[in-house]
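Researcher: Go.
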Amino acid sequence: MMALPRRTTLHAFHLLTLGLFLLSCYLSVIGQINVKGEKADNKHTAIVAVDAQEDDSNKEDEDGVEIQTYDEEDMEVFQPTSKWQTIKAGQAIPAGLHVQINLETGLKEAKLMEGDDGSRYRKVKDALSEQPNDGEDPLQVWSDGEHQGVANTEHPYFTKKELKEALKKFKASQDDVKDKEAAEKLRSQYRPIDELKKDYEQLKVNIESDIEIMQRLVKIYNASNASLEERQMALHDLEYYAHQIDNARDLVSIGAFHLIIQALNDTEQIIRQEAAFVMGSAVQSNPHVQVVAVDGGALQQLLRLISSTESFSVRKKAMYAMSALLRHFPYAQLKFLQLGGLSSFSTLFKETDVKMTSLKVKAVTLLHDMLLEHKLITEGDIPSDEVGQQRLNQYKLVNLLPAMLNQGWCDLIPTLLDVPDHDAREKILLTMELLLKPCQDHYQSIHVIERLSNLKEEYEQFASEEKMSNDGDEYFQGIFHLVGDIITRLQVNS
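Model: Structure:
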């Protein structure tokens, strides 16, 4: 038998495939068309009701729920049996049935699963027979253990109106607490909603913005009849808000910042202390406020507080404000030198009170940071932008190192090597290392070399113990190497 050409074979295959596809489409469409020729919705999860009064096919009720309407005979409750039954359009079926599509008619059919006697589908009917019924209301609430529902005893379907009534009836029958005594006891534990609403109205508080709060605090501070405690608390609360950059700028815009500067010279010690605290928080990393502070005379007031016979607490807050004002702000650093800031700091070393040691360390630490800041800016890469150029030119005007050398800081700094605090020692050693070259002649004195040698032996022991603990900490090892490096460089240059 002669074989057909390959092209003819492919053509026949394509025609057969197309025919099968058209047949499947026809059967699918037949399954979607009811006996009246109208398309039915096969979604079993839709809320469906028969409207006995209106003929519109689809409506949306006042609750915004779309109600689909079907003929009453199509809405009968599906009663499953052991035989296949056709599922009508829009008809919901119970869960757990065997469902198929009849390939001859294209309609859906369902029956009970093998071994299922259908008893579970008769529970609603049995439960209804056990419920009392006055015979007037066709909508009856039924219950079977944990399962509850509402059934229509007159028709195997619900009209739109009956469905709403059934939902209301079902909700009304639900009660979490059926025991009246228990209900009263539960109700007594909570206050009535009307009483709560009344209390809420009485407790309504006017929420203030940060700037409004600061204005109120300034008003309290400025009040002629304000007590010392009220003025102190006003400044104390103001410090909390001054931390934020925008709030600090608002202090300037509302004209309150000059009050803080004036408060640095108040007759009351506690006011001067709180004012210095507010000043430090407001100017920290805030160039706009820093300029206002310097131009407003804050530097002079702070230097006076640091170098005078003020209490330690006032001088401590003043040093905090001074540090916040000078860091990363060459304009203030230049003013600091012009106003004799180094001389004010050096007066601290003339005091023998042990408490003043921490202020001396803070002063040296601030000078170290300013020197390092100046070195990084002036010896680093030349900035290409205009702002960077201006910043560089400002730092070049701050001759901090020559001023320190002229005022004897090479001799003052090593005097703090005897402090017992490790952190303070580290800060002093870092400053000495930074000034090693210009101050090497002063560091080679017998007293300084002896003290450095003692520190090396002490931290060698600490470093050894730290290494043996194997906890990953190298704090003491770092200080040991720092002291050793200073001694080595001094010996090389001697």
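Model: Confidence is low (pLDDT under 50) at residues 31-60, 62-67.
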